[in-house]
Automatic annotation (TrEMBL):
It catalyses: chorismate = prephenate. Its EC number is 5.4.99.5. This is Chorismate mutase. PANTHER family: CHORISMATE MUTASE. It is found in: Cytoplasm. Residues 147-257 form the Chorismate mutase domain. It comes from Hibiscus sabdariffa. It comes from the Eukaryota. NCBIfam families: CM_pl-yst. Pfam families: CM_2.
Length: 266
């Protein structure tokens, strides 16, 4: 998230120099999405070091309220909330209820989004997708006992996916500003389908899916000296990564964009 905060700041600086609001462009936002792909692919590769480790997901683990992963995520989010993580509008907790307040000095993040953005958090859907659909597709079956490391890896994947998907708020804001006249009528009519077709760029989606598959091939190959490594053997299947984007990441980003736009004139 450091990169994107810096990008925000750069955008804010650009703004003060050319007097164009905060100077945010669709290309800047897309560049951030492209950079986040690297983090997502690497996080999946890290999680794939461990087998499924299903005891980490057993909802009736003695000593924890719920599964070990739930316990781990709740406790980590509490620490991170204290350290100010959720003061950043790009961050969304998975367990937002009863989080402790931030103890760090207030940082004034640029106010780019409409205030209604705060009420949008689709992490429940992301949680369900990640554990019930995605995980079994890219980790090997089995149990090696590394439950804490597994939970830490899961949390990393969840957080980077959540940040990417909720970035839809920023994408939608930029699109709205660029084409306000086109967006206003479907927003007033609360017409989801019309908004969905306005904000969809099929060619961009195709390029995203191809690029993430290529990143999975590049980052996930065995690097060896002296030969070309194991051709065709990757740490995470590139088809799973492009499927993740095509089936979930892009549709959920669009869902966030629509939810945001529906509230944009409130
Ligand atoms: O780049 C955009 O315009 C976005 O809205 C992001 C995104 C994506 O999730 O990658 C979503 C919808 C568009 O059809 C294309 C790409």
């Amino acid at each position: 998230q450091r990169t994107s905060v810096r990008e925000h700041k750069m955008a804010a600086t650009a703004a003060s120099s050319d007097n164009l609001n905060d100077g945010l462009t669709l290309q800047m936002v897309r560049d951030s999405l492209i950079r986040q792909e690297d983090t997502i692919v690497f996080s999946l590769i890290e999680r794939a070091r461990f087998p499924l480790n299903s005891p980490a997901y057993d909802p009736s683990t003695p000593g924890f309220c719920g599964s070990l992963v739930e316990f781990f995520v709740k406790k980590t989010e509490a620490v991170q909330a204290t350290a100010g993580r959720y003061e950043n509008p790009e961050e969304h907790p998975f367990f937002p209820d009863n989080l402790p307040p931030s103890l760090v000095p207030h940082f004034k993040y640029p106010e780019v989004l409409h205030p209604a953005a705060m009420s949008i958090n689709i992490n429940k859907v992301i949680w369900d997708m990640y554990f019930n659909k995605l995980l079994p597709l890219f980790v090997a079956p089995g149990d090696d006992g590394n439950y804490a490391s597994t939970a830490a890896s899961d949390l990393e994947c969840l957080q980077v996916l959540s940040r990417r998907i909720h970035y839809g708020k920023l994408v939608a804001e930029v699109k709205f500003r660029n084409e306000q006249k086109d967006y206003e009528p479907p927003i007033r009519a609360q017409d989801r389908d019309a908004l969905a077709s306005l904000l969809t760029f099929a060619d961009v989606e195709e390029a995203v899916k191809k690029r993430v598959a290529k990143k999975a091939m590049t980052f996930g190959q065995e690097v060896k000296l002296g030969d070309n490594g194991d051709k065709g053997k990757y740490k995470v299947d590139p088809a799973v990564v492009s499927g993740l984007y095509g089936d979930w990441v892009i549709p959920l980003t669009k869902e966030v964009e629509i939810e945001y736009l529906l509230r944009r004139l409130d």
